[in-house]
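Try this one yourself first.
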């Protein structure tokens, strides 16, 4: 197959609707969009949670061995880490964290806000689990905007919709937010070898040539060809029945063993136990000063 050609039309592989649980204060509500434990199915993604929370829910805590990508739906999110990083993100902003060898941070609602966020955990390959941690904030206005076929697309990460997003991830991923008016038909391009899923923030859409319907709070994985060359693209047709807002994530699978417990994701449980010991010994650095 020639490089740069469209290698496949994407269709819905599986779809489901998120179930939400009421939480105890200071948390408010939670829904799991990608359930943990389905490592091979979602690879390189580990889990994605939708959270509503007050200040005090996600105070000082550690991570090792993976990355997070946090999208703010509503409210304000304050990030503080023990390396001097600080920022406040608002609706449409995202924060990327590479935990690497060991990060320690807090993610808090601001003042009396209820923060409403999506947090995606993305695995790191074994050779990158020991790299230095890093953070990157991408404001909504920094995302690359593309208007095409009646759709407004914000590209945050990776090469898609003919542009390159500003996010610098340690593994190949794409992230785009797509807004569509009723009756709009838009074709979104993704690397064919990327595992991909989408989440419908609002609206009602039909996906692919098979016109699989999805409504608000619906999620779906897509067909893909893992053996394809990285340069080969695929396309997903999205038809909007109502005004709709879609997030599409994709990533190249890592295909390594996953051992996860609490805030750590490694390749073996022995490595997870070592992460707990290292944290207890202070190897993740000082407390987060909020």
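Now uncover the answer:
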């Amino acid at each position: 197959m020639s490089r740069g050609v469209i290698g496949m039309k994407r269709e819905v592989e599986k779809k489901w609707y998120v179930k939400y649980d009421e939480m105890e204060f200071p948390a408010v509500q939670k829904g799991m969009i990608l359930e943990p434990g389905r490592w091979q199915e979602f690879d390189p993604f580990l889990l994605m949670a939708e959270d509503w929370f007050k200040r005090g829910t996600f105070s000082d805590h550690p991570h090792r061995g993976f990355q997070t990508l946090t999208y703010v739906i509503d409210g304000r999110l304050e990030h503080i880490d023990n390396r001097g990083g600080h920022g406040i993100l608002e609706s449409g902003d995202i924060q990327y964290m590479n935990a690497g060898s060991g990060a320690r941070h807090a993610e808090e609602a601001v003042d009396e806000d209820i923060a409403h966020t999506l947090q995606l955990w993305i695995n790191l390959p074994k050779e990158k689990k020991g790299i230095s941690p890093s953070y990157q904030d991408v404001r909504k206005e920094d995302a690359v905007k593309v208007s095409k076929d009646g759709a407004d697309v914000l590209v945050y990460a990776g090469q898609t919709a003919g542009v390159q997003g500003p996010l610098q991830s340690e593994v190949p991923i794409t992230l785009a937010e797509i807004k569509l008016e009723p009756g709009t038909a838009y074709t979104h391009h993704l690397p064919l070898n990327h595992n991909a899923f989408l989440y419908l923030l609002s609206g009602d859409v039909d996906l692919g040539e098979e016109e699989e319907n999805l409504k608000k709070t619906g999620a779906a994985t897509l067909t893909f060809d893992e053996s394809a060359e990285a340069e080969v693209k695929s396309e997903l047709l999205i038809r909007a029945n109502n005004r709709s807002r879609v997030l599409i994530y994709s990533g190249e699978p890592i295909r390594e063993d996953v051992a996860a417990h609490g805030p750590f994701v490694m390749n073996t449980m022995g490595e997870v136990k070592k992460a707990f010991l290292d944290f207890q010994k202070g190897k993740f650095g000082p407390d987060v000063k909020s």
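Discussion: Residues 269-280 form the longest helix (12 residues). The helical segments are 39-42, 269-280.
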